[in-house]
Amino acid sequence: MKEIHGIVLLDKPEGITSFKAVQKVKKILKVKKAGHFGTLDPFSSGLLIIGLGKSTRLFNYFLRERKLYYAKIRLGYSTDTYDREGKKIGEEKEVKVSREEVEKVLRDFEGEITQIPPPFSSKKVHGKPSYLFARKGEFLTHPPKTVHIYFIELLKYEPPFLEIKVQCSSGTYLRTLAFDIGERLKVGGHLWELRRLKIGDLDVSSAVTLEKLMEDAEKGEVVKDIIPIEAVLCHYPKIIIKDETVKKVLNGSPIKPSEVLRKFSGVGDSIRVFSPDGKFIAIAKDVNRRYFRPVLVFSD
Question: Using omega within 30 degrees of 0 as the cis cutoff, is the peptide bond preceding 160 cis?
Fold first, then answer.
């Protein structure tokens, strides 16, 4: 097993869990430690960010990033899982809703909204995901949560299907959104297809498939599929510290302004810390402009 630190942007295929996708990546790369930054349901595809080694500690830095999805919704009836894999609820209704009505309802869901997580979800109850209870016929009611829908673009509408692009906050349930849209249109609905396109600035067009990752690994070219930690966080401000300060930082000591050689502006409340020879060693926080406090250390 190798120690590799970095990020893999995986284009997860339909049919496997996010956990299974991570295990496949670990096996292909022969790495000790890996984890994903945001679950995709088994029937969903698209961008899955996988951290390797110390990069797994970056989870919270992606938690607040906006997500962009392509979703296909089937109108006419709902299902108990809010997606195409569930059991049909009630009788199917004829979909006679106009495009104008659909667009009006979609506008109503933009902005800050309240959602109730679906019964078949990974949300934990007593330490267990709620889908385990739902599979036994125990449908738990979750408290509502507030999420933000930044925009919904109607791409195509050919009844009973509608296709949309959605940009939303982390933690938004697209299955619940599909169910709620169907309810608002009074015909029922469920999620038919889902693909994650972006997380923050990271795009699925830059992602690698499992097949391509395996092919590159066999050729010894897998390094091109691994993004260095500092490259993923390139929008954050950056400081270069004195050589004699590096060891202190690696031990968690704060950085005084006088120990900074150069400072570069950026966007965000975290700061990337580099040694004079260009090695990325830590992420720090600016504490009242008095000193920089390391919160994550990446080099040893």
Answer: yes
